[in-house]
Structures are given as structure tokens and as C-alpha cells.
Amino acid sequence: MATSTQSKPVTGVPIEISSVSEWNSILRHAYANNQTVIADFHAEWCQPCKVIAPVYANLASNQPFTYFLRVDVDGNRTRPIAAKYSISAMPTFVVIKRPPGEEVTENETGKGVVVDRLQGADAPGLARITNTHASRAYTPPSTLQTREAEKSKDIGNDLFKKRQYAAAVDAYSKAIELSPNSGVLYANRALAYYKWIQSNRDGADSPEARNALRVKQMEDGLKVTKLEERWGKGWVRLAEAFLEAGCEESMAVDQGLEGRRHNLEAAEEALTSAVGLSEGKAKAGKFPV
């Protein structure tokens, strides 16, 4: 089993808990990031525990945003954890989450509450509670600060679908003025710039004009990843910006082959971040959010 030796605990594999402090550390991390913890309370002598263990590991591998922990109820340093959760039969699976709607502050030290539990080596039941409570990829709030901002965003989305990208950029810009901390708006405008550049029309009909738009696309890509670092789609927007910055036309007036290599490497890093923050894959979105 994997062990948690990093400041950020791993996901995708069960973590064998070795102490109360490690348990508390992971619960606090999960609470702060609104992620689910599923704990398998087991014992070395328990045959049903051994039977269900591969099922638990397989579920962990398919839920990359959920922490799967294992606690030996007989361990000298982990017995207090089993006592705290009143474990009386093995295996017992406990689901711990941050209460819905509960906000956290920068120095929050909450550890969540038990929202579900299951006793016995019940594979279908374990799959059910896992699928019900598992964490999903982070998505930023889409609600904007004012109705006017929402209206401008909707206008921008409609213009984008009509392939009127220059007008869509203007609409998103108006929305950003009214709701300047929305990562969604910067992502939408970055995508609109990208499509506008590709259209070669309406103010994107010369290399100079397209390069000017590429600069603005890059600014929005960087902004969205700064505002919403955990959002996979934001990193896709940044990757698209680096790809445009590294295209042959852009490099013709920039740093040549070395500059193109740098931008392509940066695009690859951004896409790697996108995959890690998404449901196993990153899709270059065709439409705004």
C-alpha cells in the first residue's frame, strides 16, 4: 500500500495510515479542498477484509479526486482512530466529507463529518457509496457578481456559437468589467480569441493583427490559471495560448526555433496539469462555459 510522505497526500491508491497525526493531516487537507475521504477499517486476521481489499484498490484507481485510506484497527498507533469512529466489525467503510455549503477560511482546520458507512465485505455496497460520494474534478462557480455581467456573458456565448468571435470578445470584456474575478469569463474570452485568430477575419486578417490577439489570448490564459489553479479547463486555455504563441507565423517575428520549442514545452506542461486536474483526460473545449 502507498504511504503518505508528501505534504499533499496521494490519490488513486489506498493509503495505509500509520498514525493519528497522519490521519488528521489527510482529513484536514481533504476538508480544505472539499474532497471526500473513504476509510477502510480492517484487521490483519480478517479474511473478508482481504477479500474486499482488491475491490477497494480498484475503486481507488478509478476515483482520482478521492482519498482512500486504510486503518488497521489493531495497530498500536491507529487503534484510537477505530475507537473514535466506534468500529465494532471488520471491514467497516466510513465516508467523511465537508458538510454541504460549509465555507472554509484560509486557516480552517476542520476534518469533515461522517456521511455514510458500510459494514462487511459488500462489493456492490462499497461501489454504491463510492460512486455516490466520490469527489469530482473541480469546477469554478459560474454565477457572476451582477445580473448585467450574466447578461453580457450570455450574449458572448450566443455570439460565439454564431462564430462572431470579435463581438463575443467585446461581450466577454464587458462582463469581465462587471465581474473581474471570474475565471470562467477569462477562459471564455481566451477561447474566443483563439477562434478569432483561426478565422483570419474581422480584425484577424493580417499576421500583425493575429499576433496582437495572441498576446491578449496569452494574458487571459495566464489570468484564468491564476484565478482558478485547480480548474483543468483553465490549463487547456493556457495550453492553446502557448501553442498559438509557438506557431510558425508568430515565431517569424519572435525568437525563431528556440522560442517555438519553449512555447511547445510550456503547452505540454499546461496540458499535463489539465489532465491531472480533469477526469483522467483533457478536452479542448469547442464552446464556452
Automatic annotation (TrEMBL):
CDD domains: TRX_family. Coiled coil: none annotated. Residues 1-135 form the Thioredoxin domain. This is Thioredoxin-domain-containing protein. Keywords: Disulfide bond, TPR repeat. One of its GO terms (biological process) is response to stress. Pfam families: Thioredoxin, TPR_11. InterPro entries: Thioredoxin-like_sf, Thioredoxin_domain, TPR-like_helical_dom_sf, TPR_rpt. It comes from Lentinula guzmanii. TPR repeats lie at residues 149-182.
